[in-house]
Amino acid sequence: MTYRSLLRKFSPDLAIDLGTANTLVYVAGKGIVLNEPSMLAVDRRSGDVVGCGTAARDMLGRTPGNIVAIRPLREGVIADFKMAERMLNYFIQKAHRRRTLMRPRVVIGVPSETTEVEKRAVLDSTYRAKASEVHLVEQPVVAALGAGLPVTEPSGNMVVDIGGGTTDIAIISLSGVVYSRSLRVAGNHMDDAIMEYIKKKYNLLIGERSAERIKIDVGSAHPLSKTISTEVKGRDLIHGLPKTITVKDDEIRESLSDAVGAIVAAVRVALEHTPPELTGDISERGIILTGGGSLLRNFDERLKVETGIPILMADEPLASAVLGTGKMLSDTKLLKKMALN
Fold it and tell me: By the number of CB atoms within 10 A of the CB, which of 67, 114, 205, 276 ranks highest?
């Protein structure tokens, strides 16, 4: 065993899907070892982190006033540099079970239209979290790779990755990005829209977790064959008391119409910018959907009606990006070709 391979044994390379809502970590040779919310719980008095990931999410809305939940990423990019560094350090150490002897090489997916300043923020935060090397790759490219698309072949592949903070759309051929667009409308935007709708229509205040549950339970992008409903608990804004209401799928579909419409419109624009030869490939092969937001009921049906193109769901939509990033770890040639830095 060489010295270099010995170092790799004690410090396996990491692939990180640093998402606005969740962070997934893939360890070379082991697969996905971590999937936790991109969140920290911080004591405002001391500045100490009292919880990270799942522990921080479980504290949401159930802590004293001095404990606040912080999401270091907003719309797919780092918004709080120091908190992102502390969160990354926690996730890297946890992925290595806190027994690492060397600093790992890390590959991270970032949104397509990430600025140079935003890229630098990701790089600096990851290096400060004790990484030896950091490589950035475009989110839709690794999502396509993780979904099993032949991105290295001379044919058109289209992927729509709907995450928590951004929707990334890309046309890929011969390991290159022919067209890409990062839309800052995605799952979190949908949750906000539901909270605002419930507030305006019912004078009921609900939290992020309740809005996400409503989206999962009855949310849809296209009419359903059968009406479904769910109970919603919150605080009555008029009387200040707890209140329970029932909402139906058509109401939530209405609240999500702007967000869904923006994503569909962005997909249509991408198709309009695609070279004719690649358009034929996409029409035959279909558009691949990945990301948690793509699981919204009948989103695939809505997209099919709007584009006239077959829509396919990735086998593991929630993990496509990190699985594709993980493949980059073992394919140095492809990584060098696709890395943004």
Answer: 114
d(CA 69, CA 51): 9
What does the pLDDT look like over 33-60, one tens digit per residue?
Answer: 999 999 999 988 888 889 999 999 887 7
Do 28 and 326 touch, CB atoms closer than 8 A? yes
214's tokens: 């409503």
Distance CA 295, CA 291 (A): 8
pTM over 0.70: yes
Neighbours of 152 (CB within 10 A): 18
Cα distance between residue 14 and residue 130, in whole Å: 12
**In one letter, which amino acid is 302?**
R
The residues pairing with 233 across neighbouring beta strands, listed in sequence order, are: 244
**Structural domains of the chain sorted by starting position, each given as residue range(s) with its CATH number in brackets:** 3-141+320-338 (3.30.420.40), 154-185+258-313 (3.30.420.40), 187-257 (3.90.640.10)
CA-based nearest residue to 89, from 140, 144, 14, 29: 14
Tell whether the model's pLDDT for residue 101 goes beyond 70. Answer: no
- With tokens 């919603």, the residue in question is 232
Token pair recorded at residue 248: 């139906």
How far is CA 131 from each of CA 11, 17, 18, 156, 326, rounded to the nearest angstrom?
A: 10, 15, 15, 35, 16
Whether the Cβ atoms of residue 137 and residue 338 lie closer than 8 Å to each other: yes
